[in-house]
Structure formats: structure tokens, C-alpha cells
Write a structure and sequence with these properties.
13 strands, elongated, leucine-rich repeat, about 350 residues, alpha/beta, 5 helices, 13-stranded mixed beta sheet, Leucine-rich repeat, LRR (right-handed beta-alpha superhelix), cilium
Length: about 350
Amino acid sequence: MSDEDDLEDFEPDQDDLEREDDEKDTEEWEDYRKEGEESEDWISTPLTEDMMKEGLSLLCKTGNGLAHAYVKLEIKDRDLTDIHLLRSYIHLRYVDVSENHLTDLSPLNYLTHLLWLKADGNQLRSARLNELPYLQIASFAYNQITDTEGISHPRLASLDLKGNRIHMVTGLDPQKLISLHTLELRGNQLNSTLGINLPKLKNLFLAQNMLKKVEGLENLSNLTTLHLRDNQIETLSGFSKEMKSLQYLNLRGNMVADLGELAKLRDLPRLRALVLLDNPCTDENDYRQEALVQIAHLERLDKDFYEEEERAEAEEIRQRMREEQEQEPEAEPESELDQSST
């Protein structure tokens, strides 16, 4: 859970870390995808008591404090197709069933004390479960999930759905997901950012999708980190002053061609780091200067922090622009008078 705490802090080299993660994730994703394509007719392999004995650990007191039970289970990479046996292990709090061939997680509905769930690299088509009152961290990465319905756990803080087949986010109810602060949707097939109206969200990862613009995120007032790398975004509309906590914005590998689009990020009061590498606009000679002219409070663009000299120069340009704007209204009445006299 300490990893989740780390996500809440702004890291100046997050884009570099993300690149390493992307490369690793892409390799893992390809491995899972190829394995899934080899055969969908897996030999039936149900979870057995012997497997349970091997995978159980962490002996703790049960709820009434009068008995003890193992609360952690790791049964990764066992070719499992059925975990029906888990219905009897109601005291489990930490469960890892990754890298199996599971298509059904419904036995987990009986684990009402579950805090942590990892089900990566299976054959799941849905992350739907009954409301689990204590579930805080859930990962369903690299499955075949096509939607975000049926996720309504009130204490869920981190949800990982990367590497699936989700086209549109639906069913994420802010009235139910009242604790969700990190949502990972990297490497899906999203063509819209609509449906992510989760005001408590702090970290949103939407890299490697099919997005052309940002929409429906205007009210995410607690969002600090937004990753939109490797999409097809051309315009920077969709950001608003209501996004008052946003500090880190990664737009690397998109299709922003016009430097004028940067003016649309002016209203983000706490934006400190912007990544625009591998966009057409970065080929412009004055790209770095123009970004600072448009976003005065920016501290870092791509991998480099701004120097004081650059700040002073950008301020001079802004001052000249202000003076020119002030003079323009004075000139206009003269031209109107001239027109009336003719």
C-alpha cells in the first residue's frame, strides 16, 4: 500500500518513469495477448485444497478476536480456470489470482473482508463484483474487459484496468466510488474521456488509447496527475480553472501542431510540469519560450526546468503583448472618427 502513497506526490521525473513503465507494460501486454490468442479452450483446472495450503499465509485474528485464520492467498500462474473453492475462505483479505485462465471472479463476492485484489493476466471480460465494503486496491490489468460496469466499492482507492479492451467509461458512480483517487486505464481502446466524473480522483492514467480530445474532466478539482501520452490529441480544449490541483500533465506523443493551443492551459493555476515531446508543435523554433509566455507559472517543460533568464525574457514578451493590447483600443476610435468624417 506504500506504493499507492507514493503516487500522491508529484515527481519531477515522472515522464521518464512512465516511459520505463510503458516499455515494461507493453512487453507484458504482448505476452498476455499472445498467450490468450493461442487457445481459449483451456483444460479445466479448478482450485484445490492442496493449492490453497501452498498459497495461504499471514495468520491473523478473525473479527471476533477469538480465532485465527490465514488472510493472504497467492495462487499465481497455476493455469486455474475455476476458483469456486474460495467461497469457503471468507476471512481472506489479500488475494492474488494473477496469470491464470479465469473468466469468472464471482466466488470473490463471498470474501466480504477483502482489502486487496490482484487478478491481472486472466481471461476476464468484466470486473463486475458485488459491493465489497473494505476493498481498497483492485487490479484487473491485461484481461479482455470491455466495460467499467459493476465497480462500486466504497473504500476502493486504486483501480487498475490497463491493457484491456475498454472503448468507453461507463458506470463509475461518484456517489459510490467515494474513495477512488487513482484510476489506471492505459492501453485500452478509449475514444473519449467522458464518464470519468470522479471528484476525488488524484491520479488518472489514459496513455496509449485512441483519444482525440479531452472532455468531461473539467470538474476534477483534486486531480494532480494526468497522463495522456501516445494518443491522437490535436486540441488542448477541455481544461478549466476548476482543475485547480493539476500539477503534472503528460501529452507526449500526441498530434498538437499549433503552439497557440498552449494558451488553453493558462487557467490551470497549479500546473508545474508539462510534457509535449513528440508533438508537431515542438519542432517550432520558439516552442520552449512560447510555452512559458502562455503559462507563466510553468516550472518544467519536457525534461528541463526553466532558468531565471528564460523567465525574465518570457515576462518581457508578456509585458510587450500587454502594452500592445492596451494601445489597440485607443487606435480603434480614431479610425471610427475618420470613417464618420469621410
